[in-house]
Amino acid sequence: MEFSSGRARLKQARLAGDRRELYPHSLQFYLDPPTENVSLVEFESFAIDRLKLLKVVENLGVSYVRNSDSYKTKLGAELRKLKFPYKALAEDDYEARRKDHISHFILRLAYCQSEDLRRWFLQQEMDLLRYRFSELTESLRQKFLEHVNLPFEAISEDLKNELANELCTSTPGMTKVKEQMFYKVGLADAVDLFRARRVFIKDGFAYVPHKEIDAIVLNNYRTKLSKALALTARSLPSIQSDERLQPLLNHLSHSYVGPDYSVQKNTGKISLEQIDALSGKSFPLCMRQLHKALRDNHHLRHGGRMQYGLFLKGIGLTLEQALEFWKKEFIRGKVDADKFDKGYAYSIRHSYGKEGKRTDYTPYSCMKIIMSNPPSQGDYHGCPFRHSDPELLKQKLQSYKIPPSGITQILELVKGMHYQLACQKYFELMHDVDDIGFSLNHPNQYFTESQRLLSGGRELKKEPSNSGNSHQKSYSQESMNSSSAPTSSNTTADAELEGLEAYFTED
Fold it and tell me: What share of the chain is helix, strand, coil (3-state, %, to 5)?
């Protein structure tokens, strides 16, 4: 994959003419990397769009039964919106297929860098292929299988009638053999089905029903992609030497692709007196934990101050409010007013863009909190779902009056490493709603949606009550309207934020 300006790529496309023969099918195993020139702008936009798609795949895979009608409807809509292939024989989908091909390899580079990243990428790509394969017609399935060198032959009606009794007794749940298509598959490709005694075997071939062929295709794809990710990881040193590429790849694996919360339209509309109440009703668990630690200890170490301070800035605290808030709390502990002014006030002004490079720093996204700067002893920052001991997390949730069934659901999501989905479930339980209708990717998004819900923007199932959790007496506030324009990249802000840490080093 080479990189060029957008103008050069367009010129090359005109010279090459129609290249639809490069992608004869809407579906592929991504065996061959792209060899054409790709502009850096296109590189980034393709990667961000595919990352958005995989995030949707992850959320839907937990929230819905895979391949259910609602699952397919929502995922199909996302494919259309992001311009990925969704019609197998669309004559004008060359650009969509090209985007699908290139974006897969870009994220493969970004997500091969650790075992956790590889596991996540592999699972989402598997789920995406499963959906797209299930949408193919019978004839297109056959063509695709031939295209990826899995020439499984559909048996004839005569042979199916001849083997009807054996197929019925050897295939669990099979009652109407005549209505089902069977494939003749080499035994080596159907080992798992054979071990589970789910197929009929004859003369070294397995007769696999249509509903089970998906499992064989996906298993083959998993093997190939898993090996490809391992090989790509070995090639990282050569890729890391490219100064244009490496910052983009590092950012993508920690990327947040939602609204930018660095600029708030509601600045100054929250008073300091409201923060305690808001922390119990509308703060995500990570910020609620930081707020409690600050009130209990009258101090936070620099990781906590960075994470919580930028969150408070994002929900609307002005610079003057922030200085007052932190100073009042710190001088209740071991920091006197003079030490605060000399050691801490500058860093707060810096985070608001009033010192140093005058950069308007962005509140941390969920991915940044989860993937970077894990807390150590004495720290309270990080993601409680990612960084807390499960038993301590359970106790914390119990103290917030989360019902036992809800705690079980959250802990199951945590066990599966679905930390953002665990936070999403926490939101639903705290606000007594069945489905929040959006993917949760940012602490400030949590606050915004909570306030919108509590102030009447969404319908609650029942009236809030004073119970010590989110069902406290409803606090009505003007809905927080964050900027809805998606940010293609926060690379610059992330890089500049590293410089900000120097101002927070005093504990």
Answer: 60, 5, 35
The terminus-to-terminus CA distance of the chain in angstroms comes to: 46
pTM of this structure: 0.61
Helix (H) or strand (E) holding 279: helix 275-281
Nearest to 347 by CA among 366, 317, 372, 322: 322
Successive 10-residue mean pLDDT values, the chain, 507 residues: 49 45 85 89 90 87 80 86 72 80 93 85 92 85 85 82 82 73 83 81 85 86 93 82 74 66 69 94 96 95 94 92 95 92 90 84 88 89 95 95 95 91 94 84 92 71 37 32 36 40 41
Closest by CA position to 308, among listed 327, 292, 330: 292
Q: Give every strand in the sheet of 182-186, ordered side by side.
A: 153-154, 182-186, 205-209, 200-202
Q: Which two tokens stand for residue 449?
A: 């949606």
Residue 334 CB coordination number (10 Å): 10
What tokens does 411 get? 């802990």
Count of CA atoms in the C-beta half-sphere (13 A) of 42: 21
For residues 286 and 384, the answer to whether their CB atoms sit within 8 Å is: yes
